[in-house]
């Protein structure tokens, strides 16, 4: 009898604890799906839309009739926000400027201690971001700078030559088919965008003949972007599954990318440290080494490992994100040939055919600029933003957000919100023009680069590159379909850390 009573009591306690685990939420936490053992609510996201988790979160938001939902991803508490007001509040309130310690961020660093910029927070993040941005500016990053524009011009000239003449070196076969005029996306633009960025950072450019390692870097960079997701995949919930399913969990691919990228930049850094001469400042890297030698407090993070990771974070989007966004632009130019024609008319009027477009031309080409902005809105490259984290207990949209909650401002939902855009599903560059056809920045309330203190550090560089490369291509070429090709299918685009088109070869025709 006593045993039966005891077992019943244990069973009741077990059922009560399980119930509490599944349905309990901190007081005032936003509504959302229940929490399953191990997975939390991540499984529900996968069930709703395993391919696009940002769309799954938006569907749940509609289901719960709330623009903010609360989830558990494994042990992590998460709040996802789906309206413009909430997104802006997260981005502009410094209480949300933390970054969660997801396994994805830890596994990038061989020392297993999170460094760099993207996944850093606090004093170290502030000091490193401030220092890098302050001194990269001297070399043209984030502003108009003739010398840099000349370098970009030369890179674009090389790129166009590669299209016309076809591959000259082994590694170029990954970018262009023999005979030329057929390019691989989303790889193609990245080595040239990376090289433009490297000229800012190292004052060096890698010649076409020696781009083999750079092309591999681009390839593995895109592999990393594609093999993660908004929450760091199941790996952030159960990091141990990498030992059981290293391939299916994405671990092998992420790890392969991490190791190669780290080695690539460590070699650069070590070469500069070894040949450093305090009497001769060669580039930005030397400025950083000088700072390392000052013996600043440890918390500022001026050491070799942080140097490598900071450099990776400031370069990674230059050799992945820019080329991917350009490829998304190409998809739309192919789907909307009338838009491409109108940009070409603008190029013909403002630039002509005797020289490449420059940033000086940009102000005079409002339709082109509006098209790029519309693409950044409708194909939000980073749909859930880079995850933020609450640094203290806060209130958000009337809900209680406890310290350490991961906070995701859904840029995707904001960019496709009918309440803000009336016809968000239509690709319509004109939405950013006034009645006289001039660019009206007030109408562009999209935030593809985030906002606030965590604003994308490369926004100006990225916008400049998108303009220069899009116009240089359309000045010389039409995007066409070769026999057997079909128009891009946007539903096939990959969702990873960023959205990216599946690998495809595009046919170009001389205009
Ligand atoms: C089309 C291209 C790009 C897009 C759409 C983009 C978008 C973004 C977004 C949404 C964030 C997260 C902001 C936040 O945390 O709220 C971000 C962060 C960042 N981006 Fe970009 N980015 C692009 C290109 C670049 C480039 C070219 C660079 C540098 C060369 C760059 C460097 C960074 C860095 C360092 C951060 C981390 C900022 C921090 O955590 O403080 N990005 N970017």
UniProtKB/TrEMBL annotation:
InterPro entries, A to Z: Cyt_P450 (IPR001128), Cyt_P450_CS (IPR017972), Cyt_P450_E_grp-I (IPR002401), Cyt_P450_sf (IPR036396), Cytochrome_P450_fam2 (IPR050182)
GO molecular function: heme binding; iron ion binding; oxidoreductase activity, acting on paired donors, with incorporation or reduction of molecular oxygen, reduced flavin or flavoprotein as one donor, and incorporation of one atom of oxygen; steroid hydroxylase activity
Stored Gene3D superfamilies: Cytochrome P450 (1.10.630.10)
Record localization: Endoplasmic reticulum membrane; Microsome membrane
Record: residues binding heme: 456
Superkingdom of origin organism: Eukaryota
Protein name (record): Probable cytochrome P450 304a1
Gene it is expressed from: LOC111594455
